[in-house]
């Protein structure tokens, strides 16, 4: 039975999100939820939930920041994707990303594309994103710790 779901952040998620931990080699590629949880216009915190417990987190942006990654006015930017270190290796990241397209279609119906930037050294993340339908656009950006690949996925019925 698949009990992974994607949910908008709620106050009852806060205590568990505060306890998230990532090893240093992962933390350099993303941010912990507690560091980026403040809600602002155009930034939507999304919690990956297993049963009723948060196990992961990411942000979806529909702000002007998206324009740095896509010319599509109907694109969302995915950032800060992470799975709590204690919950890694259980398939949660893949299951969550497989649900992303339908989640966006349901919760953000006017959007038809998801774009992200992944560091060229972050091979596990690149492989995950490819497995779930993202493709490398060939575009590159220089991020805080080096070159980033710009990847996109069309939002389709699955």
UniProtKB/TrEMBL annotation:
Keywords: Transferase
Pfam family, one: Acetyltransf_1
Coiled coil: none
Organism domain of life: Bacteria
Ranges of residues in domain N-acetyltransferase: 4-156
Single GO MF annotation: acyltransferase activity, transferring groups other than amino-acyl groups
SUPFAM superfamilies for the chain: Acyl-CoA N-acyltransferases (Nat)
InterPro entries: Acyl_CoA_acyltransferase, GNAT_dom
Entry protein name: Acetyltransferase (GNAT) family protein
Organism: Ureibacillus xyleni
Source lineage: Bacteria, Bacillati, Bacillota, Bacilli, Bacillales
